[in-house]
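Listing S7. Sequence submitted for prediction.
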Amino acid sequence: MRAYRDCSSPQEKIAVLEAILNVLNVSPASIEEAQDLAVTSQHLLEETSSEPLPGSQLSRLASFLFNKRVYQSTFKPAIDDEQSEFIEAMADGRQRKAKWIRYRVWIIFFHALLAFAWETTVGKAIRGLIGVK
């Protein structure tokens, strides 16, 4: 079975969702809801496709600068949360909130960067002094 992320059209995504739901023995009503969700997701992506999601460039930068473990534990969750909130704001037509999230993702990125720097310097020093690994 193809992965959902590999699908290029809404029809392919619907087919993958139907196959997954059929394997899980989910009712036809749930399949219709999944189809609606796939179509809605596609519309949201088309509406926001003129510009990348907030934090996309920061995410690429962090994944380049840091190893996979640090990126996935420190930066990815924060940026993913902001992107989800941005999509919800756009879906609800809340343009001001979406604009605020575009600024807030930068603040959160630098907060995560400072938290990582603190943990790797001061945190290690303190743990070394008290004898904790």
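Caption to Listing S7: primary sequence and predicted structure tokens for the chain studied. The CA atoms of residues 29 and 35 lie 10 Å apart. The mean pLDDT is 80.
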